[in-house]
Amino acid sequence: MKLTYYGQSCLELEANGTKLLFDPFISQNPLAKNIDVSALKPDYILVSHGHGDHVGDLTQVQKQSGAKVICIAEIAGWLGKQGIDNAHGMNIGGAFNFEFGRVKMVNAVHSSALPDGSNGGNPAGFVITFNGQKVYFAGDTALTYDMKLLEDENLDWAILPIGDNYTMGADDAIKAASFINCKDIVGVHYDSFPVIEINKDEVQEKFIKAGLNLKLPAIGESIEL
């Protein structure tokens, strides 16, 4: 499975010709200025919550690709008002089998409102079974003991926020990795704004000392999971 990072919490997972795009926020992120949003053609878009730095390019990418959007029910309803009816609404604790694999929506501790002030429902994370691997996309979240519920999921990878201030920082992400029993981590949600800038070397050292494998791909870089 290939992961391509587009900055903030936006990334794409690709396997067997199917592309899953998460939290599309690119054109408004100066760090991602070299990414051509118009070239993105995912098959599915997964949205963790309604904040602008996670849905900034959602409507454009959906309309140019025709992708099915997987999201909380309230965001699916909001998309309908934007002329997008190809959305699959879910809620916390529910799971569904899609053509590419299974998605379970899990708890995240954060806030959620859409850019126009509409109700964004509850923030969420996802456990995705795709191409024989199980990946946890935590979304924007604090460290929460609910993560212990995932320790028996046999996760192959976890995508965790590490930027602090709005979400978990590196120290809490390390605790989260212990809670979910997963040693292979991709860090996201950092550096896009001054208050979430990190020292990558220090963060890497912390993860190494904790016995964890942390990947911090550059914007536009693809890695194999």
From TrEMBL:
UniProt-recorded name of the protein: UPF0173 metal-dependent hydrolase DYU05_12790
Coiled-coil portions: none
Protein source organism: Mucilaginibacter terrenus
Metallo-beta-lactamase domain span: 7-189
Tree of life domain: Bacteria
Residues of the signal peptide: none
PANTHER family (alphabetical): UPF0173 METAL-DEPENDENT HYDROLASE MJ1163, UPF0173 METAL-DEPENDENT HYDROLASE MJ1163-RELATED
UniProt xrefs under NCBIfam families: PRK00685.1
